[in-house]
Amino acid sequence: MAAADALAGLRIVVSAGPTYEDLDPVRFIGNRSSGKMGFAIAAAAARRGAQVLLVAGPVALATPAGVQRVDVRSAAQMHDAVLAGLPADVYVGAAAVADFTPRQVAAGKIKKRDGEDGLTLELVRTRDILADVAGHARRPRLVVGFAAETDSVDSNARAKLVKKKVDLIAANRVGVEGSGFESDDNALVVYWNGGEQALGPAPKTELADRLLDLVAERL
Ligand code: C5P
Hints:
The protein has 6 helices and 12 strands.
């Protein structure tokens, strides 16, 4: 396996899972990411001899063998942990990072009040980890992003490739039965400047290796 050897000894940072953005001491805004895809990538990279740092959001998954893991909760914490993990040869941003976070975390539990029939939350943009890694002074040689899309998968993924200045985007369609969030299986289309390749449908463990084959080829 010539392609597998290309990853041996390399430092790979992988982000995985959702982020939780706290509203008050008991509530948060999260998402349906299970972390399975990112954990499978970290496990496969370690099996292939890479030195792997896995930055994990809140997930219920065991740490893959040979992987160094840092647990985080929020997008801001994930941002700091990923950037602190540089320099690296490869970054794979498989986490479903919140795009917005509450402007303020309430110190006490937010109460419903008589006479109020709604609640307006003020959210602010989070920092884009993927774009910051891709634009970093110590940019990894290869930066891989994910794109979970409900529609226009192709054009949205290609736009992300350019806008975030990443080398590979692995896109999956959200809402397809038996793939994507929470599932053990997935189907991806991987895009790069001048090419694309469909991977799967297949178990995420197998897709992880196929994605790493593409990474190895493009290093
Ligand atoms: O633009 P969109 O959020 O769909 O892009 C998804 C990709 O960007 C994923 O790789 C995700 O990990 C990354 N991302 C990020 N930081 C954010 C939002 C998304 O790294 N704040």
